[in-house]
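Give me the fold.
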Amino acid sequence: MSDNKRVFLVDAYALIFRGYYAFIKNPRINSKGLDTSAIMGFMNSLLDVIKRERPEHLAVCFDKGGSSDRVEIFESYKANRDETPEAIKIAVPIIQDILKAMHIPIMVKTGYEADDVIGTLAKQAEKEGYQTFMVTPDKDFAQLVSENIFMYRPVFGGGYETWGIPEVQKKFEVTDPLQVIDFLGMMGDASDNIPGLPGVGEKTAKKFLAQYGSMENLLANTHELKGKMKEKIEANAELGMLSKKLATIMLDVPVTFNAKDFELDQPDIPKVTEIFQELEFRRLIDNFTKTFSAEAVTPQAGNATEKASEGTPTKATPSEVKSAGAGQFSLFGAEDNSAEAQTSNTRNTSETAPHFYQSVAPGFATKLFLDNLMKQTTVCFDTETTGLNPITAELVGIAFSWEVGKGFYVPFPEDKTEAQELIEQFRPFFESETIEKVGQNLKYDLKVLAKYNVDVKGKLFDTMLAHYLINPDMRHNMDVLAETYLNYAPISITELIGKKGKNQLSMREVPLEKLTEYAVEDADITLQLKEHFEKELGEANTQKLFDEIEIPLLRVLAAMELEGINLDTEFLNSLSEDLNNDIATLEKQIYEVAGEAFNIASPKQLGIILFEKLKLVDNPKKTKTGQYATGEDILSFLAKDHAIIRDILEYRGLAKLKSTYVDALPLQVEPSTGRVHTEYMQAVAATGRLSSNNPNLQNIPIRTERGRQVRKAFIPRNDDYTLLAADYSQIELRIIAALSQEETMIEAFNNGEDIHASTASKVFNVPLAEVTREQRANAKTVNFGIIYGVSAFGLSNQTNLSRGEAKELIDTYYETYPKLKAYMTRQVDFARDHGYVQTVLGRRRYLKDINSRNAVVRSGAERNAINAPIQGSAADIIKVAMIKIHEKLEAGQYKSKMLLQVHDELVFDIFKPELEDMKTLIKTEMEQAYTLEVPLDVEMDVGDNWLEAH
């Protein structure tokens, strides 16, 4: 890049939205319940630009009030845009406060979009001899590119690319960047509701520009066009010119480029750090500090105003960002007296915090250490291993801590015999019933030690599980917890062994001194977190849930994961071949209808085939990027009327089944055991449900015949065993009946009636014996849909009912079961008053958006207020059953084992001589796990594979 005078103009909302959606599948929620995704994403992008380019002149440009001129000429301009997410609305003023503390100029002008502000400033700066770099991913800015104006575009996967004239010419196939306006006007822009010319997509727009050069020239030569295209363009000439005007970025906004006002000053590092700490941006603090480490902190008093001025950039002094600790400024609407808010600007580390960490030498020193260890009542321990897979990992060492700031590390020899001899010396500690053991993600440590035939006994305290109950929506890894609750930044594993890849070290290769510091720090931090979370468990009334469900379940899951399950890989190989043939047949059918071969898996190519070539829909929906929407919801709606859509949906289903399960499962067989060992994630789902990983057994499809076939691959260990599957029958409906005290439904369950037929009888007002199959199916859909807040539209899509009939059915349902409706209202009211709902066993689901001003966001929280106690109660009940069954199997020294938990179902490997005893034991413990006003009913079956047993 040139060393000439440069100015960087940042399109604020483009980067804010980009940051927000980058985290959409895993939002960054801090301990205060604030979604910080947009703030974090924006700040990462901004700091990256500053770090890479070190610009002397920079400003961040915001919209204010939208474009009044464009709305005046086209009322529907941007009318179809979704409402701004609540998290972004909250984020913007916080981002502006950060920018002020960083002394970064903010540009905003009422009635104009940031595009227009940037365009005007870019042209002014160009006249002043500056090169301008427009920091934005928005393609509209390409029209502004010139010899001295460039787009500086963030790219997927990180980094930036610069678009000058050659790049714009290549991207849009134009000779002059100004033709981008014509290009946008011709094809329109769904995200801004710019209509464009009907029937003109990207390819056609490029063709027209190559032939005619501009919109005006195209419209002047429509006589050269043919057929429907000619008719459409002639009929919509005015619309085309309107679209071009809407796509044109204004260059006459009343703002002024004054180079001095755009100078990038040194930030107020302490003040920015303070805001980042309140937001709980641990890594961002480091990134920010490193970015400006060479800068002197010299705040400029006197050139700031409280908010951005009209047309003149604003730089804020530190006095404008008040201290949260002083109660004058809060990002969360109220004074925050948490430990995090009152900490100093610098986090403690192993270099600043006083501590005593020591490695224990073999021999006599180990004996003395063991004598001391056995005198303790509570000890935190942490295993260090050669890998993350506990089935194959070997012990490298164990860290211990029982006093804050102190701890010891015991290295283990690489020789397996010697390692086993050393662990035997520690067996009395691990198997002591009187010493409490503390850890972070103890399930992993228990599994590692089980490899050495060590059974960890006594009371356990897992800080990860404790925090999961205290704040289920936040992340629970130790680094996050340490920085959030202890104001301590732990040693990074990357510092120790390097980044992932072939050059990453093994723990065995780390020098003992460094490994001691790292390992004992983990144990020390975890011990401190334990002291912190013990109090909070009591305050949240979740101590009993922790002691009686989550901690005992930890042992159960460890045993199940170590046990694993047998897999018939030959059957899966055969199934894969069958699927290949079916996919090839569907592919051929799709190509025949389409009239050409194309990449069915490409949404872009598929959209062009369906909506441009085949024209299945008059006004197809588009995504934010301008592509045709081809998601399952869109295609499912069209499937009734188009065979090709049905084939595409089936093609997708089979392709996903093949790649995700049929071909992937054999690769997940552990060679050392010959079995699949799924990992149950106990601290992920906020509802309390377990999820599984490597492989994910929860999502194996069961609604299609092909999907069900995958279960056939799960088989007993040998011919002496059989699989037994036990499934709670309609447990969520039973729970809602009990919680709502709906007598009619309770009576039906107590009488052993078919609840769906019973519901159909009542809502359709027909005798039970005369209920049709279709009526029962519709009643079943409503029964289960009610839990998730089904609407008339949703019910209509799931059944053959019209929307009016669906609404009538829902209204009749609530009239039949009035206490269900009353229960739902009570739950929402409770959530609004308390900020959470809870299960029958006291598990809380916090609902930060329950009082949101955004109706869409609020309605989602309201649905969660209704279904979370039901889903969560079902999850709690099956956990209780698992604990009781495991205890009985252990006590009875049975050969039969519990292997899998999937939703409301448990799968067992049953030793055939124990089958009848197991049927009784499992059914009894599952049905008596919790007492409701309706019976819990369990259905079970046995078979030579999971499909037969289900």
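Residues 67-81, 294-312, 314-345 have pLDDT under 50 and may be disordered.
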